[in-house]
Amino acid sequence: MDYEPEAVNFDKPAILCKWPSLGNHRRTDGTGPYMLVDGTLDECLRAFMAKPASNRHLYEIHTTAQPPVLADVLAGEVVVEFARLRGLL
């Protein structure tokens, strides 16, 4: 991922969501992910990174898109990369 850190506003509102799971696998037969943290993109990145790496595939961050760098839903390695670039690793 190649971007200028100033190109992303980490103070934008964001929501950290978790998918219901069974046996560490997403359950997509239900109502979808539920909210865990309602805050800024920075707060959600920090909360995501506090989760065990083996469970991070169950989480996603919903935020306002910031094209061309940031989509409105961030998941998996994309979140980890933004956290790394933010200095959270």
Briefly summarize what is shown.
The protein has 89 residues and is of the alpha+beta class. Helix content is 21%, strand content 28%. It is built from 2 helices and 6 strands; from the N terminus they run E-E-E-E-H-E-E-H.
Write up what this structure looks like.
Helix 1 (41-49) crosses helix 2 (77-86). Strand 2 and strand 3 (25-26) form a beta hairpin. The protein is globular, with a radius of gyration of 13 Å. The chain has 2 helices and 6 strands. The protein has one domain (5-86). The relative contact order is 0.24. The longest helix has 10 residues, at 77-86. It has helices at residues 41-49, 77-86; strands spanning 13-18, 21-22, 25-26, 34-40, 59-63, 73-75. The protein is of the alpha+beta class and 89 residues long. The protein starts with 12 loop residues before the first strand and ends with a helix. The strands form 2 sheets. The chain has a 4-stranded antiparallel beta sheet, covered by helices on one side. A two-stranded antiparallel sheet has the order 2-3.
